[in-house]
Design brief:
It is built from 14 helices and 14 strands. By secondary structure, the chain is α/β, with parallel strands linked by helices. It has a single domain, classed as 3-Layer(aba) Sandwich (Rossmann fold). The protein has a seven-stranded parallel β-sheet, sandwiched between helices. The chain has a three-stranded mixed β-sheet with strand order 9-11-13. The structure holds nicotinamide-adenine-dinucleotide (NAD).
Amino acid sequence: MGKDTILNILILGMDGYIGWSLALHLAEKGNRVTGIDNFSRRRTVEEIGSWSATPIHSMEKRMQVAKANYQERIRFHEGDLVDYKFVSDVIKSCKPDAIVHLGEQPSAPYSMIDVAHAVYTQQNNVIGNLNLLFAMRNFSPDAHLVKLGTMGEYGTPPLDIPEGFFEVEYNGRRANMMFPRQPGSFYHASKVHDTFNIMLACRIWGLRSTDIMQGVVYGTRTNEINLSENPDLCTRFDFDEIFGTAINRYTAESVIGHSLTVYGKGGQTRGFLALVDSIQCLTLICENPPAKGEYRVFNQIDEVYNVTELAEIVAKVGRRNGLAVEVAHVPNPRHEAENHHYKVEARHLRNLGFKPTRSLEQEVGLMLEDLTPFKDRIKEKEQVIDPKTTWSNGQSLEEGIQNYSIRQNTRTTS
Ligand SMILES: NC(=O)c1ccc[n+]([C@@H]2O[C@H](COP(=O)([O-])OP(=O)(O)OC[C@H]3O[C@@H](n4cnc5c(N)ncnc54)[C@H](O)[C@@H]3O)[C@@H](O)[C@H]2O)c1
């Protein structure tokens, strides 16, 4: 299999930030793409009082526009991964070569709101992934599972972070073992549960998988998405405290003159990569599957920064573009180290040919250009930017139980 092979690719979570961008890119390359989504991201963003800065179309309209370019090479089915019958039916009809699993609740703060949101996140993510593994075992055992995990599975250990496994010596014996996972939220913990379930499925059933520890993704553009040329194809872009990740939030703050919200001391260091490069990496991974029975881990990042450095870069580019940008340190709502060692190995993707498309400064410049026309939409939701969701919110047990039952009822009736 190589870059010229046409693949049948199933994308779980195709309505999302990365999923929609990936679907367009894979179809553009000539692959046959089938997507599924239950639109939960649209509902959760609405629930917290926000919206995408870029006005995204309904899936019906998205498909009309995409089919004009790609005809039957792109298809969509609405459904929930937590429904095993739905997952098996899609896999039976699609017969995928690769399944890119992006269909999970992706926000750490959302999972920390209260017991209802933590339970929802883990049920949605862990059960959806488990359904997928069983459906693959039963109906598509040779397909390649490309699973989106997160660099946050490792936490911030005082050791360098290898790609999934490392050699360890204990009591005079050496072995290659899984590198410890230290999740920092119930969302991150859901990803660690997925990791264990996927490893097990590869070992006992001979499935093949690439488990991707992805860094934080930022950007508005890909090769197929350019807001000034084809606004109908744009992907979502969130900037609120729950779904807005560091660089995306900073750029949205810059265009409305809101101080850039650096949490705490701002020494929190993470791996980042642009949306266009996340898509590039996922495509390379689909084109280069592991052997049957192989479970492999790729760290998918471009560069490492701390969140103050990032805010300063965004402020510098913003000022160069005539914006009045200030950086502010706000109380950190999270329970995390604010100064720590962080060194990540990320060789596998570069060995497959990954080359970053643009520098961070260039990408931020394009983001500011793309977001400026939507300044009023961002301004209208300015109240959702500052962090209010803390890792210990002081909710009483009674409140937690009440919220939990409300959420369970909502799930069964919607
Ligand atoms: N964006 C990032 O910075 C980032 C970083 C690391 C890892 N990831 C991971 O990458 C994946 C995609 O991230 P994203 O930013 O595109 O998120 P997203 O929320 O925009 O996309 C996920 C999509 O999956 C759908 N979905 C969720 N649960 C589902 C279910 N049970 N059934 C069907 N569809 C379901 C949502 O409606 C959404 O459209 C996620 O798994 C996320 O955890 C993202």
